[in-house]
Design brief:
This protein is α+β, with helices and mostly antiparallel strands and 116 residues long. 48% of the residues lie in helices and 13% in strands. A hairpin with a 2-residue loop joins strand 2 (87-92) and strand 3. Helix 2 packs across helix 4. It is elongated and about 45 Å long. The two termini are 20 Å apart.
Length: 116
């Protein structure tokens, strides 16, 4: 689902700021899913860690040491972010690498912040 009509190719659509025009039902559902995925402190930190790394990419093996959580728990949180459309992932050998979908973050920021 997108925040705009289905003809838009962007994952979030055109992302007009909330104060400029009302969201469609589908757009509101999509935005809520993204915000829900980011609403957990661990997932928010994971998103920040991945997005702020050089190239916006990190191996799951690089993320485990930042938390006092088990590797399966970290992987679960990364899966939630991936399924929400905030991270892309690629398996390389035995490791999984995650890449931030900065275009989705930028569009979500534009929606909430009022920037176009």
């Amino acid at each position: 689902m997108s925040l705009a009509p289905a003809k838009q190719a962007s994952p979030l659509g055109c992302c007009a700021p909330l104060s400029r025009e009302p969201l469609t039902e589908e757009g509101a559902e999509r935005a809520a899913a993204l915000l829900k995925a980011l609403g957990d402190p661990v997932r928010l930190r994971l998103m920040s860690l991945v997005a702020s790394r050089d190239g916006g990419e990190a191996c799951v093996c690089d993320l485990n040491d930042a938390f006092e959580l088990s590797q399966p728990t970290i992987s679960h949180h990364l899966k939630v972010l991936h399924e929400a459309g905030l991270l892309d992932r690629e398996k390389r050998g035995v490791w999984v690498y995650y890449r931030a979908r900065t275009e989705v973050l930028n569009e979500l920021a534009a929606l909430i912040g009022g920037a176009a």
